[in-house]
Amino acid sequence: SGGTVGSFLGSKGIEGVESVHTTKNPTMQPLLRAFPLVLWIVQAFGGRERFTEELLLRPLPNGHLMAHFHFQLAAERGEEPSQGFPHAIAHLAQAHANVKDAQLRLTSGRWNYRKWGRPPQPASPVGAELVMNYVPVDEETDLTLWRNLTHALGGLFCTSLSFLADGSKHIQPKYFPVGGPFRERTMTRYGVLPREAACTENLTPWLKLLPCRDVAGIGSLLKNRRKLYDSLYHSMGSHLQVTDKLLVLTNTILLVIPTGKYSKDRISRNWALEEQLGNVQGPCPSAQSSHVYVQASKSLPGGADMKGGLSLEETAGFSLSPAAPSLLDCEAKDPSGKNATISRSTLLDYPLMLYSKQKPLRLELEWKEDVKAWEPEWPLFIAHSYIAHSTGDSGSIAYEFRRRTTVPILGAPENKLQVCLFQYIPWFLRVWVHTLTLGIDGQLQPEGALALHYLPSRDRVQPTLMELCFDLPKTAKHALLTLEFQKVFLRRTEYPTDASRGEDIPAAVASVIEIFPDNITEVGKLDSTWKSIEAFPLHGVPDDVTDRPLLQLLEKFPTQHIYLDGLMISMTIPDFSMPYNVCTFSSTVVSFAFTSLLVLLVKPKPAKDAKEDKHRKLKKAAMLAVFGILMTAAAARDAGYI
User: Fold this and answer.
1) Residue 396 is inside which H or E element, if any?
2) Which of 214, 391, 455, 546 is most buried per CB count within 10 Å?
3) Where is 293: in which H helix or E strand?
4) Judging by beta carbons within 10 Å of its beta carbon (0-12, 13-18, 19+), is residue 398 exposed, middle or buried?
5) Which pTM does this prediction carry?
6) Helix (H, G, I), strand (E, B) or coil at 203
7) pLDDT single digits (tens) 388-410
8) Are 362 and 274 in contact (CB under 8 A)?
9) Cα 438 from Cα 399, distance rounded (Å)
10) Cα gap 642→625, rounded to integer Å
11) pLDDT of residue 437
C-alpha cells in the first residue's frame, strides 16, 4: 500500500517472497526468488526516484557511541505518486498543497553538549516537535491547514499531535527561523508537546517509509529495539520538503548508546558494531548510495596530526577493523579572507556495496591504552535555561550563554556575534517584559541592547511568543538573560492527572550569527569541502562525494540552532481532597434522606378506617411530588439551566 520495497515484501520481508515463488527445480529457485524484487526495483527506481542511506558513527569522549542514521528519498512530482515514494507521504503533500516544508521530531533524553560535543543535527528537546512552513492564504484557511496536518501526521506516526490543533498549543514565529531558513512568501507555525513519549509504536510506521524497512541495508541495524530505546538520547525525525518539481523525504535517527563502564581517567570502552546494533549485510537494493562513516574527532590526542591514509589509525587514538576502503577529509576556511583552516574532520568511509551477506561489515573499535578522556568539540556557545526562583504566584526564568575559551573565534576580532533566542511560553505564565535584563560578563547592559519581538498571551487562547537578539563582543565569555513571570490560577479541570508533577515549558531555541563588515553569515556556513583520500582500492566503486546528503549536512555544521533545556514549573495546586469530601458528605446526607423518605412511602401501616387511609395516600403522593421537584431542580442546576 505504501509503494515501498518493504510493503512489497510484506511483514515477513524477503522470506515472504520466497514463500510465494517456489519451484521443484532447486537450481532455478534463487533466480525465481530474486526476479520479482529486481523487476520491481527497476520499475520503481528507474530514474524518477533517488534513495540514499548513510550512517555516521562517532566515538564520544566518555566512551559512548553516537550513531546518526540518515535516509533520503527524492522523487519527481506528478499527478500520480511514483511507485518508489511512500504513497502516504505523497498523498499528504498533495492534499496539503500549501505546505512547502514539514518537520516532525520525537525525542527522549537530553543532549549533553559538555560531554558529547556538537551533534550532527540540531538536538531536539524531549517530546514531539512539529514545524510547518507554508504559503499563507488567510487566518481561517491557515488554521484549517495546520489542524488537518496535525491530524494526518498524528494518525500516520501514532502520536498525539492532534492536541497541537488547539490555538494555545502552537505559535507563529515572525523572525526566528526555528525550522530552518525562511522561504520566500512563506510563513512558519511551530508546536511542541513536551510530554509526548517516543516508543516502538512510533518507530513501526516510521520504518514503513523506508524502501527496505529494517530488512536490508542500514535499516537492518534498527531491528534491535531494546538498544534503540535503552540509549541515553534518542531522536527520530521525518522531514518533508516540497518544491515545484520534487518531493524530498528525509528520515533520521540520532542515538547515543552506552558501551560499557567508564574509569575516571582512562577510556576502556572497546566496542563492536555487532554487539551494539548488529552487522550490515550489504546495501539496500534500491539505494543509489549506501555508506557507513566513522568520524575521528580533531580533538582526539594526535588528531591534529592526521594526514589521512593509513596513518589515521595510528594517530586517532583508536584502531578499527576492518580497514577503511577510503578516507574523507574536510577543511573549513576562515571567512575573514585569511584562508586559515579553522576546523577539520576526517571520516573513515565504508561503502556498503563492497559487503554482502557472505561478507558482512563487522566493525570493531579498540582504544589505545595511553588514550585518556578528551574534551569534545563544542559549539561556539553552550546555552542553558533554568527557573531562577519560583513562589506560589510568581517566578523568573534565566537564560545563560557560556563560551569555552578553547573554541576558535571566526573572522576579525572587531566583528561581533549576534545571539538570537526564540521562546514559546504557555499561556498560564504571564510574562512581564519590563523585567527583562541582560548581563554580559557581569555588567548590566542598557535597555537598547536588546531587539525584541513580543506577542503577549491570551488566557486559554494563545501562548506567549518572544523573539529577541543581542550583540556579544568576541571577547565575552558569559551572558545572562532574566525574565520574571506571574502564574495564572487554573481551573480544576485544567490540571493534568498528575498535577503535583508540575507543568512543562517548551525548550527555547538559540542561534549565533557572526556580523561581518559587509554581510551577516551564520556561524558554520563556511567555505568547506570534502575531499576523498583513497587508502585502499575501491574495486571500481564510484566515489561521488557531492551526491551524499549527510556529507553536505556536515559541511554546513548545521547546529546553528541550539535547543536549551526544557523547564518544569510547579503551579499552585488546590486541595483536590475537598471535592471528594463534599461529594462523600453530600452523598451520605442524600442517601439518609432518600432512605427515610422511601421507608415512609413504601412501608405499609394498618389503617384504622377508610378516611385515615385516604389521608395517608394523599400525604405520600405530596411527599413524592416534592421529592421529584427537588431532584429535578438539582439536576437542572447541575446542567446549567438554573
Assistant:
1) strand 394-402
2) 214
3) strand 289-296
4) middle
5) 0.80
6) helix
7) 999 888 999 999 998 876 655 55
8) yes
9) 10
10) 20
11) 93
Percent of the chain residues topping a pLDDT of 90? 36
Quick one: 554 exposed, middle or buried, by C-beta within 10 A (0-12, 13-18, 19+)?
Answer: buried
CA distances from 567 to 213, 231, 375, 507, 545 (A): 36, 22, 27, 7, 41
Instruction: Answer positive or negative: Cα dihedral of 486, 492, 493, 499.
Output: positive
Phi and psi of 282, rounded to 5°?
Answer: 90, 175
- Indicate whether 590 pLDDT > 60: yes
Query: What CA–CA distance (Å, rounded) separates 44 from 35?
Result: 14
CA 385 from centre of chain: 19
347 to 320, 324, 480, 625: CA distances (angstroms): 12, 9, 37, 88
Per-residue pLDDT tens digits for 446-460: 877 788 899 999 999
Mean pLDDT is highest, among 83-92, 98-107, 166-175, for 98-107
Query: What is the pairing mode between strands 341-351 and 326-333?
Result: antiparallel
Treating both helix axes as pointing N-terminal to C-terminal, what angle do 139-157 and 87-95 enclose, rounded to 10 degrees?
170
Cell numbers 589505545 label which residue? 368
Residues 6+ apart with CB under 8 A from 184: none
